[in-house]
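At this stage, I put together a protein sequence along with its fold in token form, as given directly below:
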Amino acid sequence: VFEAVNMVRQEIRHSRFLAFLLDPSESHGLGDKFLRALLVAAAKNHPAPPASRLALTISDCSNALVYCERDHFDITVQIPDIRLMFVVENKVFASERPDQLSDYRKHVENRYPSYKFMGLFLTRDGYVGEDERWSTLSYSVIADELKRILAEAAPGADIALVIRHYIELIQRRIVVSQELLDACRRIYAQHRTALDLIVEHGQVSPLAEAFAMFCASHVELSAFTTRP
């Protein structure tokens, strides 16, 4: 369903769906389970988390307020009970601009001085951002946590189906599953020589192909060189 609505590369739509799942007041039936799971995962990868994983695991986040695109942040979660401002910067196929994470952190610290800040930099592969005070997480963790929650919780059949579709989207179009990596390694081990020859001699640039077709239909032109 997500591929049908062309969501694969739409960062804001990923953020809105994740915000829906993070909001305990929404109709998904998960309560605050996904929110607490993401908080714990973020704290695990944080250099100096503002709250311990134990505190986040047992905390009541049922009154959390979740926003999209507030203060230019992809997702903001305000948790009054533990005085925590949890900000998610989501990069699906893009990269951060210079000083983006540090600017966001300073903005939160200045605007909400009575709240502790915890930032999560969410990317396809979990690469580390420029600001060391942000946690990092890959989309594979999102898929794993959603699988675990589906096994433990009991959302309605329609919500469970949508979440399974989202997990499949992540594993097929955003991150590479371990099963696929293992299959690729087995294929390469069995056909190493042939694949090495294909890589060395069989690569054809789509742009070079298009240019050759263009030249064939314009005989007044002649190509003297092509380069990658």
Remarks:
- Residues 192 and 198 are 10 Å apart (CA to CA).
- The longest helix spans residues 157-174.
- Strands lie at 65-70, 73-79, 84-91, 116-123, 134-138.
